Amino acid sequence: MKKTISLPYGTGEISAQVEESQLLGIVQSQLEEYEAEKSPKELLCQAMENPIGTSRLEELAKGKKKVVVLCSDHTRPVPSKLILPPMLGAIRRGNPQAEITLLIATGCHRGTTRQELVNKLGAEMAEKEHILIHDCAAEEDMADLGILPSGGRLRINKAAMEADLLVAEGFIEPHFFAGFSGGRKSVLPGIAARETVYANHCSQFIDDPHARAGILEENPIHRDMVWAARKAGLAYIVNVVLGGKGRVIGAFAGDFDEAHRAGTEFLASFCQKEAPEADIVVTSNNGYPLDQNIYQAVKGMSTAEVACRKGGVIVIAARCEDGNGGEVFWRTFREGKDPKVIMDTILATPQDKTQSDQWQSQVFARVLMKCRVVLVSQAPDEMVRDLHMTPAHSLEEGLRLAQEMLGEPQAKILVVPQGISTILRPQAL
């Protein structure tokens, strides 16, 4: 008997059939199935009317002349069109004369284009609101706030430091080394200078066993981020949790740390799962917009890594229509023939010498040292091979290649349809 498995892929799905005798299970995040009792607008209203750990936004805005709202950029599926109107409304009710700036927290990503702003905010908001786009390389735009607990220098966009009130919107999902996205991440890396982001993403921290999806306690990356947000004066957040088809299923407002913690606990209750060890782990990068390149697909691989046995195979479906996603990342593996040598080089790199994309390369090297990877994508085959993976053009082909690699026709297969939004923990023996 065969069972059909389906994974998100681009804006659609990709599927294959698996022998039921080989299938260890399908580990599915319940986020896809959960139906909130209230509408997204009602959830947001309820969260903002009952903030966690702080006053309502209207109260915070009273007497504040300059208000800066940190907004997610084009790489994140945050429903800003839904979140920002009630936030801006609350600020203006608190102080109709407030000068509001939307600061797009790009981190080290490229700048958000005009069309991407329109897509994200809507034409009216994109046209009428005062918008700045953070550039991590613009030294003249940065303010120095001292030294992070890690020893790195904290420099962030001075527009945020000139504000009387700093607030942020965002969403919470598992993050492969920060534990979870959202909350404090709007500041670091969101509006931080490149040198600050690189110090926070150093090899020592990425190598720490607590720097994993779903872990905040003792996570050195998270610790730096919280310290930075507090130093910057981040006073209030509105963060959402997204379910199937990007719908809002949870909303959390208030203190950047307390509200964020509440959101992570809510999220983990749906997506943290135990998983048995498998010969082959099949997963995805949650489809568009998260599977546009190989660089981002490392996140889905890092989820699969938890359940894949040493020497096993990860089959990941990610459309990757934009190719590798990072020139330095690609060159690292094209020129480096041995993932262990790459890893040793990265681990020997001091914090203040952290290189572009080093953290992604480090996680990817860690995956490759444990497992082989078959990438089902539209990326050029040569590019995939340059990155030490085996290319495939359908999920059926990917599974066939994985079994051939292992030489085990009855290899045990685990399916994790949403690699980004699932947190795996080894199954207790």
Give a structural overview:
By secondary structure, this protein is an alpha/beta fold. The chain folds into two domains: 2-28 and 276-426, LarA, C-terminal domain (2-enoyl-CoA Hydratase, Chain A, domain 1, Alpha-Beta Complex), CATH 3.90.226; 40-270, LarA, N-terminal domain (Rossmann fold, 3-Layer(aba) Sandwich), CATH 3.40.50. Helices cover 35% and strands 26% of the residues. It has helices spanning 40-49, 57-61, 80-94, 114-121, 123-128, 158-161, 194-200, 203-207, 220-232, 258-271, 294-307, 327-335, 339-347, 358-370, 381-386, 395-406; strands at residues 2-9, 12-19, 23-26, 66-72, 99-105, 130-133, 142-147, 153-157, 165-171, 174-175, 179-180, 234-242, 248-254, 272-275, 278-284, 308-317, 372-376, 390-392, 413-416, 423-426. Strands 3-19-15-16-17-18 form a six-stranded parallel sheet, sandwiched between helices. The protein has a six-stranded mixed sheet with strand order 6-5-4-9-12-13, with helices on both faces. A hairpin with a 2-residue loop joins strand 1 (2-9) and strand 2 (12-19). It is globular and about 70 Å long. The two termini are 28 Å apart. The model has no long low-confidence stretch (mean pLDDT 95).
Write the layout of secondary structure elements.
Elements: E1 2-9, E2 12-19, E3 23-26, H1 40-49, H2 57-61, E4 66-72, H3 80-94, E5 99-105, H4 114-121, H5 123-128, E6 130-133, E7 142-147, E8 153-157, H6 158-161, E9 165-171, E10 174-175, E11 179-180, H7 194-200, H8 203-207, H9 220-232, E12 234-242, E13 248-254, H10 258-271, E14 272-275, E15 278-284, H11 294-307, E16 308-317, H12 327-335, H13 339-347, H14 358-370, E17 372-376, H15 381-386, E18 390-392, H16 395-406, E19 413-416, E20 423-426
Parallel strand pairs: 3-19, 4-5, 4-9, 5-6, 9-12, 14-20, 15-16, 15-19, 16-17, 17-18
Antiparallel strand pairs: 1-2, 7-8, 10-11, 12-13
